[in-house]
Design a protein that fits this description.
Elements (H helix, E strand, L loop, with lengths): L1 H14 L7 E2 L56 H10 L5 H21 L2 H4 L5 H17 L4 E6 L3 E8 L2 E14 L5 E12 L8 E7 L1
Antiparallel strand pairs: 2-4, 3-4, 4-5, 5-6
Length: about 210
C-alpha cells in the first residue's frame, strides 16, 4: 500500500493535480472545520465518549404488525451483502446507503481541505501514511503556487469492495468527479478511495487509507 501513497505524492508534486483525495473520497455540503462545532465526515460533534446507539431501523421489527420479522439481507448489494451483514453484527448502526452519503461528504471535505492546505481538518480523516503524503503534497503546492481546486461535478459514490480482517473493515469506494484548478480546463477524475475502521473501537470515523486510479 505504501507504493500507492508515494505514487499519490508524486502525482500531486509533479502534475500539481488534485486526484488524491476529497472530503469526503464527496457528500452533502462539506463539513469543513471552521472553528464551529460542526459534525465531521464519518463522525459526530463529540466523539470523546461512546453514545448509546439504537439498532438501525432496518434491523428492528415493524411496530404494530404481527407478521414474522425478516431481518434485512442487503441482497441489492450482491456479493457484498455478506460483508455488510458482518459489519452490521459489529455495528448495528451501519447502513451502506448512509455510508455512501457520508463518503460523498468526506470527498468534498478532503478535497477542499487539501486545496486550502487545512491540515487540521485532514489529519483526523486520514491514516498516518496518507496524511504524511498529503502534507508533503500541500507543501509542494505552496512552493509552486498551486491554485484553488473546485469540484464541478461529483456522481453518487459506489461501494466496489469490502474486506474484513478481524475487526478491521476496509471499504473501497468509487468516486467519479470533474475538478478544476484555478479556473483551468475541467478534468475528469475517477478514483478508488479505501476507507478503514476498527469495528471494535469507539471512534466512529472511517479513515482514508489509500487512493488509486479507477
Amino acid at each position: 500500500m505504501e507504493i500507492i501513497f508515494f505514487a499519490v505524492v508524486a502525482l500531486l508534486v509533479i502534475a500539481r493535480l488534485y486526484q488524491v483525495l476529497g472530503q469526503n473520497r464527496g457528500a452533502p455540503p462539506p463539513f469543513v472545520n471552521n472553528g464551529q462545532n460542526k459534525p465531521d465526515a464519518f463522525g459526530n460533534n463529540d466523539t470523546s465518549e461512546q453514545k448509546e446507539i439504537a439498532p438501525h431501523p432496518s434491523l428492528m421489527p415493524p411496530l404494530g404488525e404481527d407478521k414474522p420479522y425478516v431481518a434485512p439481507t442487503f441482497s441489492q448489494y450482491g456479493d457484498l451483502a455478506p460483508k455488510i451483514l458482518e459489519i452490521v453484527r459489529y455495528d448495528n448502526s451501519f447502513d451502506p446507503q448512509n455510508f455512501t452519503t457520508q463518503a460523498y461528504s468526506a470527498y468534498e471535505t478532503i478535497i477542499t481541505a487539501f486545496s486550502t492546505g487545512d491540515e487540521n481538518t485532514l489529519q483526523p480523516l486520514l491514516s498516518d501514511n496518507v496524511f504524511t503524503a498529503y502534507k508533503a503534497a500541500i507543501e509542494a503546492r505552496r512552493a509552486t503556487g498551486g491554485g484553488k481546486i473546485d469540484i464541478i461535478r461529483l456522481l453518487t459514490p459506489t461501494i466496489k469492495d469490502i474486506s474484513i480482517n478481524g475487526k478491521i473493515a476496509t471499504i473501497d469506494v468509487l468516486f467519479q468527479s470533474t475538478l478544476t484548478e484555478s479556473n483551468a480546463k475541467p478534468r475528469a477524475v475517477n478514483e478508488i478511495w479505501s476507507f478503514e475502521r476498527n469495528l471494535g473501537s469507539k471512534n466512529p470515523i472511517w479513515k482514508l487509507i489509500a487512493v488509486e486510479p479507477a
